[in-house]
């Protein structure tokens, strides 16, 4: 059980002790445990927002993040890297968010800021609730998967509901995608809402680096997405000047024309099939797996999975891998999509093994907008 976080084991010991004297579910002590744990989170946060790299001393993780805005306007992409997530040495949270619409940058930042804390609280509460059952098994991979899936589902529902009632953000015609990952020991859990993508870099049997796509791009053209959306009276079709680019439209209006089938916000079409339910994926990390790339569609529009993995793998400094991938994608927009305005481009690369060439606490930070950059 060494791959489980110290919080997981410490919580288990606390619960085991408490169960001898009290019924947690009956007396509500489980929630008290959760509250106490949540307070500890605030004491030891290591969060990086915007662009840069982070590597905590002694950590096996190194995360590289970089974002580049389009030629005009504000960057509606944003990222977050939270090392020692939940004050646990073996946990890290990374997220990448792609806003759209007039208020898209505000929506993206709101979801970025609220999602990790909400997820952490829901994970802690779900863990406490699960642990009170007599058949709870700390070593069960299936149980671990169910806990994180349940936590992510609760979190995404709560975040979307809170956003809808936000007093200062108008998300009726604006929204954001969200692709996040939690590494807990030798396990990674991903949740995807929208059309960003996660790709794993791992060597094949002959030593060549190969790309394994972990998430699905939730585009309106997917048969399973289009089918139930049509059942809700929403329309999915391509414009004449955008052949092959399917969008979601209102039943009787040529609006809003969303190029994804899942997002936070965009309440104008939430009654017509658009959802914020995440695809939750679990993968056990092997000793061969090297890194996972999280990137917005601005990258994948011009870079293949295989190209992305090779670009990262050949980067001599891990901390600069995300920047190299983003710059490569920007060059791809100039060459492959001439005359088309470049999309915002953002990427996070989470390495599972830090190389000796990467120095701890050495940051290359390039602000992607007017927002202040956190330094450590």
From TrEMBL:
<keyword id="KW-0464">Manganese</keyword>
<dbReference type="GO" id="GO:0009414">
    <property type="term" value="P:response to water deprivation"/>
</dbReference>
<dbReference type="InterPro" id="IPR001932">
    <property type="entry name" value="PPM-type_phosphatase-like_dom"/>
</dbReference>
<keyword id="KW-0479">Metal-binding</keyword>
<dbReference type="InterPro" id="IPR015655">
    <property type="entry name" value="PP2C"/>
</dbReference>
<dbReference type="GO" id="GO:0004722">
    <property type="term" value="F:protein serine/threonine phosphatase activity"/>
</dbReference>
<comment type="similarity">
    <text>Belongs to the PP2C family.</text>
</comment>
<dbReference type="Pfam" id="PF00481">
    <property type="entry name" value="PP2C"/>
</dbReference>
<dbReference type="GO" id="GO:0045926">
    <property type="term" value="P:negative regulation of growth"/>
</dbReference>
<dbReference type="GO" id="GO:0046872">
    <property type="term" value="F:metal ion binding"/>
</dbReference>
<dbReference type="InterPro" id="IPR036457">
    <property type="entry name" value="PPM-type-like_dom_sf"/>
</dbReference>
<protein>
    <recommendedName>
        <fullName>protein-serine/threonine phosphatase</fullName>
        <ecNumber>3.1.3.16</ecNumber>
    </recommendedName>
</protein>
<keyword id="KW-0378">Hydrolase</keyword>
<keyword id="KW-0460">Magnesium</keyword>
<feature type="domain" description="PPM-type phosphatase">
    <location>
        <begin position="62"/>
        <end position="352"/>
    </location>
</feature>
<keyword id="KW-0904">Protein phosphatase</keyword>
């Amino acid at each position: 059980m060494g791959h489980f976080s110290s919080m997981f084991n410490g919580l288990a010991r606390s619960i085991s002790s408490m169960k001898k004297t009290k019924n947690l579910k009956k007396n509500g002590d489980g929630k008290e445990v959760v509250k106490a744990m949540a307070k500890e989170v605030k004491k030891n946060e290591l969060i990086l927002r915007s662009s840069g790299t982070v590597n905590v001393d002694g950590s096996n993780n190194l995360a590289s993040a970089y974002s580049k805005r389009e030629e005009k306007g504000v960057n509606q992409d944003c990222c977050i890297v939270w090392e020692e997530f939940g004050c646990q040495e073996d946990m890290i949270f990374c997220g990448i968010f792609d806003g759209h619409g007039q208020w898209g940058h505000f929506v993206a930042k709101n979801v970025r800021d609220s999602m990790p804390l909400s997820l952490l609280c829901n994970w802690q509460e779900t863990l406490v609730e699960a642990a009170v059952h007599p058949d709870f098994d700390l070593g069960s991979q299936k149980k671990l998967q169910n806990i994180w899936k349940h936590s992510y589902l609760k979190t995404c529902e709560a975040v979307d509901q809170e956003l809808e009632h936000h007093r200062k953000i108008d998300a009726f015609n604006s929204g954001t995608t969200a692709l996040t990952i939690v590494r807990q020991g030798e396990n990674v859990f991903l949740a995807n809402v929208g059309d960003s993508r996660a790709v794993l870099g791992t060597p094949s049997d002959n030593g060549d680096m190969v790309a394994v796509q972990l998430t699905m791009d939730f585009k309106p053209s997917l048969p399973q997405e289009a089918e139930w959306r049509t059942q809700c009276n929403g329309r999915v079709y391509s414009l004449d000047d955008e052949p092959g680019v399917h969008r979601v439209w209102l039943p009787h209006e040529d609006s809003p024309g969303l190029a994804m089938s899942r997002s936070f916000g965009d309440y104008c079409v939430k009654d017509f099939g658009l959802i914020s339910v995440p695809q939750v994926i679990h993968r056990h990390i092997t000793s061969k797996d090297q890194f996972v790339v999280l990137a917005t569609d601005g990258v994948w529009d011009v870079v293949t999975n295989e190209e992305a993995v090779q670009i990262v793998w050949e980067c001599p400094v891990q901390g600069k891998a995300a920047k190299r991938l983003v710059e490569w994608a920007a060059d791809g927009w100039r060459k492959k999509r001439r005359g088309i305005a470049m999309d915002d481009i953002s990427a996070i690369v989470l390495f599972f093994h830090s190389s000796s060439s990467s120095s701890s606490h050495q940051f290359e930070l390039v602000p992607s907008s007017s927002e202040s950059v956190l330094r450590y």
